[in-house]
User: Fold these one by one.
Assistant:
Number 1:
Amino acid sequence: MTDAEPAADNDTDSGPTSLPERVLALQAVDTEADQLALQRERHPLREQLGTLSEQLRQWERRRSALRDRIDELGTAIEQAEERGAELSAHKARLEQQMKTVIAPREAEALMHEIATIDGQRDELDTHELEALEEQAQRDDELAEHLRGEESIRTAVRRADEAVVGAVGDIDRQLAALDERRTALRAEVPASLLSTYDRKRAALGVAAAQLVGRQCQGCHLELSAAEVDTVKDEAAATGVTDCPQCGRLLVV
């Protein structure tokens, strides 16, 4: 790395003053932001909200199924009544015709047709009664089901509000970190910043400190020769590359 370190400010801010300190501070901010973003995504309250939301969806599906079945039964009952009226009218016509029939064979045919209509009507009445009974049962089930609506929706709303509150706190922390990141990035030379961004995209953690002979990024120990090499490479800026993991190594 050959970028010259930016001139030091004249203020008395206690923040990082050397280039290595700034790089490590930038990495610390990015690491904390990554952790907060993961915490935001996997917050336990989200799981609770997800569970309650799925319960609400199941409740709504059950409500829809009950309403659909009630509608189907209503249609079936209506059709049965219409068909029953048609059969009754047909039977009435046949009975009226019976009064004018003289021939026994014709009378027998009419009686057979009337009996057939009676059988159809009995079967139709049975189906209609079953539909009416089921409709009443489904109506009761729907009424009972609807009584639970307020409680489940309230639970979902409260869980959502809890998530919003928790996430809002994290978002405020992320916003503060973003301001800190912007300030730190402005204090790092552009070429080094470009290298940092590239390594961060590839490795997640872009910069680490050399402690003793160990890189704190990959936690591997460098050989004595490697330590001498990185110290020579970092003599000008205090930053070079780890020969083991390729991260920026602050020496």
Number 2:
Amino acid sequence: MKVGYTEFSFGYAFTENLIRSSPTAPVGAPVFPNLIQEGMSGFDIRINFPGAPLFLQYKLPELMRRGTAFEIANWSCPGLSLPFFRIAMMRRDISRQHELLIELESRYPANVYYAAPGLENIRDFDRAYNSAAVARRSVFFSPTDIGSLPDDKNHSLAYKPGLSVGYFFSEPKPINARSFEQLSGILNTTFEQHRFHDLQIAAREMREDVLDLASPAMRQAEEQITERMRSRRRPGRDDATRSPEEEQTLIDVVVAREIARVDMGIDLLVAQPRSLF
């Protein structure tokens, strides 16, 4: 059964809700207070603060309501009951996306996830969006937990909000299912890592790592992308006081985000600790 909203709508609502859920607009979310956005004031990010990347692959599920669903009819999956959600994995012979996510996670442990909604229909989606709760009503899965796809056949992941595991198929393999609150806690610990203490260094590393995993055509287009991102920058209230190094940090982030989005279908967010504000 279709949920009634699109993957694009889910991804947009997820990121927009992170901003809008902040008590101090426009920057803010419980642990993502400086989500990178192009807008009236440039980019909402503090250069001299720690910053850690979060790579998300949004997945749109189908809602399973019937007992004929193979997860229920053919297998024993403790805790999985009707209704539940099922997301389809990108087939290995069609795309290298899953393997790229695993490679990216090897470079950024605990920072790469599939994100899937726990909203059954468009009415639930609209209510969650209006209350800035789409991210909080999502479930997160580590590509590495899933592991490499065993063959070129269709594979899927079944999950139910509130259940601590999902099940990877064609045969059920339990996969940790993280809530938004758990993800928040994990990200808070990443700020303690030395590599994320200096956003200027972290941004350069993000750009280099994303470019290293990108297609040859995208790597060749890096300079054109950089110039396009520079031209799209809107003057912000802090621009006059930014140093060339700070400006380069912003460009590194948005170029990395653009390459990840266009070439891999991955959304790149930057988290910064709220306690410093």
Number 3:
Amino acid sequence: MASWFKKYLVVFMTVLIAMGIVFMNFFQSTDKSDREVLTIGLQCGYPPFEYRDENGKMVGFDIDIGEKIAEKLGKKLVIKDMDFDGEILSLKQGKIDLIISGMNITPSREKEIFMVPYHGDAATSLSLIFWEKIPDGVESIEDIKKLSNSTVSVGIGTIPETYIKRYPEIQSKSFEGALACLIDVKYGKSVANLVEADVAEYLQKQHPEIKTLQVPLSKDESIAGFGIGINKNNQILFQKISETIQELKATGELKQLDDKWFKSDIQ
């Protein structure tokens, strides 16, 4: 009886060990696959950071930045197009590794996630975009409330969307993406579009009909450029991204991309 028991115990243990090896190899393979992929979240439709060209291909400054980072880290780039206001939640939930989405660095965002600066200096103003002409009597954002059409379009989840709320007399309409905001102005549904200065500069190159009016920001409201978002639980990735951006700056690659997308007349 003891011999019979020992015989089957050996068989049972052998099977368990074999199964353990199979499962271990499976999970190691899965982990390796995950490590080989870098997933970034962005909201397409926000030129020149990310938008679709005439062939429907996703292009832009952030796309190129993502490709450079993935190349430096030896990873395959995966891009997820998502709502801007859901990007931070997706980052926290581990659905994406990075946010590279023309996201401004603000104190409130830095409380939630790491942000690595990758473009732009501190901005001291926003821009009101008008189509063809600035209405008579409008010299500041406060003057918008005097107009019969006092609606201003803004991008969902952006700094301008938050900023416009301080003027309850001004109606606001929120859209996914800068182009939708601009179209609303072009066809007279909104009188103006409030955007970041960099975006206004880019759009004005593409559409000479645009006229702009600067909206000064106080020192406390100034925007510290644009940043790459990283989960605060991923200190290692934060360090790698910080080092990669510094490398791209040192080699001049970052400046080349900046010149390509913000200083060239890209259609």
